[in-house]
Design a protein that fits this description.
There is one protein chain. By secondary structure, the protein is mostly beta strands. The protein folds into four domains: about 100 residues, Immunoglobulin-like, CATH 2.60.40; about 100 residues, Sandwich (Immunoglobulin-like), CATH 2.60.40.10; about 100 residues, Sandwich (Immunoglobulin-like), CATH 2.60.40.10; about 100 residues, Immunoglobulin-like (Sandwich), CATH 2.60.40. The strands form nine sheets. Strands 2-1-4-7-6 form a five-stranded antiparallel beta sheet, with no helix packed on it. It has a five-stranded antiparallel beta sheet with strand order 11-10-13-18-16, with no helix packed on it. It has a four-stranded mixed beta sheet with strand order 3-9-8-5. It is rod-shaped and about 135 Å long. The N terminus is likely disordered.
Length: about 425
């Protein structure tokens, strides 16, 4: 009797070293422990603490030990496959405790034939932001009696859902179609609760493709030295906010060919809009520069590339300013403007006295080589600043005016009468 009493005391002492985690912390276990209630397919984990380095064994269907740590902490998982009452023996350092748990029958939620446990993430995949995606789950009764679904709550849209309460006979199933729409780029997670069993619906919103676009100018035919307003219009309203870039490509050496913000700018497309926004404006200014060439505009964004070309044709020389002055015994004619052909062929100057009478014949200059040489080294496109100096034999004060004309391969430009002060 003394030996038996000693063994019983030793066993009691060891049992006192086995603790189970409760909401208020770890508590000593008795001869048996109730792990609680779950549903078939839903794991129920309970944390225990025993002697360090203790040998742990579990005997019983549906029970297993996991996450065993050297300090004696370990987890008992109860994962039933069917409803009913379950029990198992838990042996820790030679001391055995009875484990009890209950599995209540419930409707099984399956995705593509796979049963989902409580807390599972139901992935809807990747879809463009603003686009709805639908997935159909199956509610199955794998028990031997009729089950009732009383409540389905979710942040998703239920498509043709079943009328509740739903009585589902043994062995029967019914589809549950859910629709989600990511409103922006990134993860969207929504809850799904079926009679208190919680799941998470997840969809990944991808950068949305932009609708088909076109570039609209306020002038259909462009010329050099022009400012034109551009708009980007889309074939349909944007489902969600997006954006992209407007890029200008030009092969000629002319820094004046540009958008108001440079040769590349970003635009935004607000949700529901069909017109791109450049900051606070729905258009942007483009300068055509001073060279004859082709301007290409590209609209680029997710799933979109649109191009429009504007051909800037050669045109007669454009004169912005011209004046004539006396400098000592010479007459100086200064002309600024641009020649988008960069190939002026001739210049004619005719002088007159103060009464308007011609003074001799016209002076004709053919600066073809000088013109080409100038533009080959100029970084200003077709812009030029001309200074023509004419020595006067005699009284320079008698010269009252001069008219000028510049011709290129396209036509002639009359400068008109320049009065010499």
């Amino acid at each position: 009797m003394k030996l038996a009493s000693l063994l019983l005391c030793a066993a009691s002492a060891l049992v006192g070293q086995i603790l189970v985690e409760t909401p208020t912390g770890f508590q000593p276990v008795g001869a048996s422990v109730s792990l609680g209630v779950t549903n078939p397919g839903d794991p129920l984990d309970t944390r225990f603490r025993g002697p360090a380095q203790a040998n742990i064994q579990i005997g019983g269907a549906g029970f297993s030990a996991r996450d065993i740590l050297p300090n004696g902490d370990f987890t008992v998982r109860f994962l039933p496959t069917a409803d009913g009452s379950y029990s198992a023996s838990l042996t820790v350092a030679g001391v055995t405790i009875l484990l009890r748990a209950t599995a209540l029958a419930t409707v099984v939620v399956t995705q593509a034939g796979t049963a989902l446990s409580r807390g599972s993430v139901i992935d809807f995949g990747v879809v463009e932001a603003g686009v709805a995606v639908e997935q159909t789950l199956l509610l199955e009764n794998r028990s031997t009696r009729t089950l009732t679904v009383s409540r389905i709550e979710t942040g998703a849209k239920i498509v043709n859902g079943p009328a509740l309460p739903l009585n589902l006979a043994a062995g029967r199933s019914i589809p549950l179609s859910l629709e989600v729409t990511p409103g922006s780029v990134g993860f969207l997670e929504l809850p799904l609760s079926i009679d208190g069993r919680e799941f998470t619906l997840r969809v990944t919103g991808a950068i949305p493709r932009l609708p088909a676009a076109r570039i609209v100018a306020d002038a259909e035919t462009l010329r050099s030295g022009q400012q034109v307003r551009l708009r980007i219009e889309f074939a349909e309203p944007a489902r969600v906010a997006g954006g992209g870039t407007l890029e200008l490509a030009f092969s000629g050496n002319d820094p004046a060919v540009r958008l108001s913000t440079g040769r590349t700018t970003v635009f935004n497309l607000p949700a529901g809009s069909r017109v791109a926004r450049f900051g606070e404006a729905d258009d942007i200014m483009m300068q055509t520069g001073t060279i004859s060439d082709t301007i290409r505009l590209f609209v680029r964004g997710p799933g979109l590339e649109t191009v429009r070309e504007f051909r800037i044709e050669p045109q007669p020389v454009v004169v912005d300013e011209a004046k004539a002055t006396r400098e000592g015994s010479t007459i100086v004619v200064a002309i600024t403007g641009f020649d988008n052909s960069r190939g002026a062929a001739s210049m004619n100057f005719r002088f007159a006295d103060r009464a308007g009478n011609p003074l001799g014949s016209a002076f004709t200059v053919t600066p073809d080589n000088e013109w080409k040489s100038y533009f080959q080294t100029s970084g200003m496109g077709g812009v030029f600043r001309l200074r023509a100096v004419f020595p006067v034999a005699g009284d320079v004060s008698l010269v009252g005016s001069v008219t000028a004309e510049i011709a290129n391969g396209v036509g002639r430009t009359e400068i008109g009468k320049l009065t010499i002060p």
